[in-house]
Each structure stands twice: as C-alpha cells, then as structure tokens.
Amino acid sequence: MGVYFLTVNFIPLLRKSELPNVCVIASLAAIANQRSMGSLTYSVSKAATVHLAKLLAGRLHPMNIRVNTICPGIFPSEMTGTTAGKHSYDINHQAERAAKRCTSGRPGRPEEMVAPVLLLSSPGGAYMNCALLTVDGGRLMGVSINDGIRMPEDTYTDEILG
Fold first, then answer.
1. Which end of the chain is more exposed for a tag (fewer CB within 10 A), N or C?
2. How does 138-161 read in b/e, with b if 16+ C-beta sit within 10 Å?
3. Model pLDDT, residue 161
4. DSSP strand pairing (88-91 vs 81-85)
5. How deeply is 50 buried, as exposed, middle or buried, from its count of CB atoms within 10 A (0-12, 13-18, 19+)?
6. CB-based contacts of 127: which residues, under 8 Å, 6+ apart?
7. How many CB atoms lie within 10 A of CB 125?
C-alpha cells in the first residue's frame, strides 16, 4: 500500500518535473522462488509490488510519468544482516551462504544498487517505462530448487540438505 499511496500523493510534483519517473524497489523474491531467503508472504507481497508498478506505469503513462521496477537480490540490509553501525550492516550467515549461489558469488554492494536507480531516474533511462531490472549478481540463474547443478554443500542454506 505504501508504494501506491506515496506515488499517488507525489503526482502533482511529478507532473511539474522535466523528467518525471518513479523507481519502485521490490525483490527478486517477486519473480523467483527463494527457498533460502524468503517467506511465502514476503514473496507474494513483492510480486504484488511488481504488478502494482506495472499498473501505475499504465495509469501514469498519459501524464508522461514513467514507472520502473528494480528487483534486487541479496544486499546488506536490515533483513539480510546485523547492524554494524548507523546505516551499515554485516551480512548474516544465511544470506552470505545464499549469496554464494550468485554468479558473482557475493552479496551486492550499495553502489551496485544506486547505479540502476540513477540510470532509471536520469535522461539515460528516459526511454524506459514499465521496465523490470534484476540487480542480483546472477542469483536469478540459480534460485530454482531443482536447478540440476551440483554446488558445494556450503552454498545451500537449508538445514536439511537433500
């Protein structure tokens, strides 16, 4: 509900902007099964956020307001870490192990989230509307429970390995 009400309440200001756009941050859990990092309710709420962004893009299109979505993978945050100081987090053990299954083999860095947001908000992203970007270090490639690829045991986060 927050994405909807925040966006709708900012429409008067967005209409005054030279390059009006909204960048919605959802989660990779919205589009893929994340057996290690998410719950059913979290995944469903993020899928709803992605769909809401699509609906807002269509509704705001006549006003020339663009709406795009980013689905991040594992980044340092309150959900994936422990507090290391003001606005700083250390990745928890479960998230660290899950991040090993990314192509990059590690969690994302803050600048790797900032850059796509800046792209979508800049003239360089002005031709993008209703886009969905995955910023996940390649995690989407390996999130399937039955991905068929044998990985080292320490990359699996389930307590019972099968």
1. C
2. ebbebbeeeeeeeeeeeebbeeee
3. 45
4. antiparallel
5. middle
6. none
7. 20
User: Strand, coil or helix: what is 13?
Assistant: helix
Structure tokens belonging to residue 69: 């979505």
Q: Three-class SS of residue 14?
A: helix
Residue 49, C-beta contacts closer than 8 angstroms, at least 6 positions apart: 3, 24, 26, 27, 30, 69
Per-residue tokens: 41? 């309710």
For residue 34, give the nearest of 70, 1, 2, 72 by alpha carbon: 72
Do 145 and 78 contact (CB within 8 A), yes or no? no
Domain range summary for the chain, segments of one domain joined by +:
2-142
* AA identity, residue 104: S
Task: Give the N- to C-terminal CA distance of the chain in Å, as an integer.
Answer: 38
Residue 95: other Cβ atoms inside 10 A: 22
Do 71 and 135 form a contact (C-beta atoms < 8 A)?
yes
| Sign of the four-CA dihedral 58, 59, 64, 68 | negative
This prediction has a pTM of 0.80
Taking CA 31 as the corner, what is the angle to CA 26 and CA 32, rounded to the nearest 5 degrees? 120
Residues of the chain short of pLDDT 70, as ranges, are 34-38, 81-89, 142-162
